[in-house]
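Recall the central idea of this unit: under ordinary conditions, the amino acid sequence of a chain determines the structure it adopts. In this exercise we apply that idea directly, starting from the sequence alone.
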Amino acid sequence: MTLSRLLPIALLTVAATAPVTDWSAAPARQTAKGAYVFGNPAARVKLIEYGSYTCPHCAVFAKESEAELKGKMIRSGGLSLEYRHLIRDPADLGAAILARCAGPRGFAAAHAMIFATQPVWLKKVGEYQAAHPDIDTKPPIVQARTYADAGGLTAAMRARGLTPARINACFADKAEVARITAMTGDAPIEVNSTPSFYVDGTLQPPGDWNTLAPVLRAKGLK
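Accordingly, the structure predicted from this sequence is:
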């Protein structure tokens, strides 16, 4: 076989094995217990976050950390971030169900959107609660769906391509809802607030991005 006939095959091989240069754009991966991991699975630094979609401090962390954490540390492949749900209330559960309903390829964008728009949809949830005090007597999953609808998150996810049938199926998936809530029950006893962080298995003192960033930079991340 001549070189001219071998060349296309060689090029295809190179293309198929080309390294990922932007790990922040890679689909999230799900762990055995259902948590989602962003970034390089072989990253040398492992960050775990226990967070809640109704936690204002978590939303602030997401905003303040994005440029460096996602835009540099995760993007470069040096750090992976595993997000574990610590469910605080039915509205948080509803948001988590919707975020995960987007699947591995859509989770990262849905996750970011929910935190970025938290002040808007959480205010609507509060207004609904005030106008419908009997909602607290409903089963948690009914509350979760009601708050997702009232806050506008369901509509936002439909605008992102999720069909009503898909959304209904996600809220009806008892096994998946159990996996989400189990993460809260499985959290170590020392995790008692959100957000909480582990860096390479070590729990960090409570704080924000300004306190966590130096710890990550000390690991050689840029």
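Confidence is low (pLDDT under 50) at residues 1-16.
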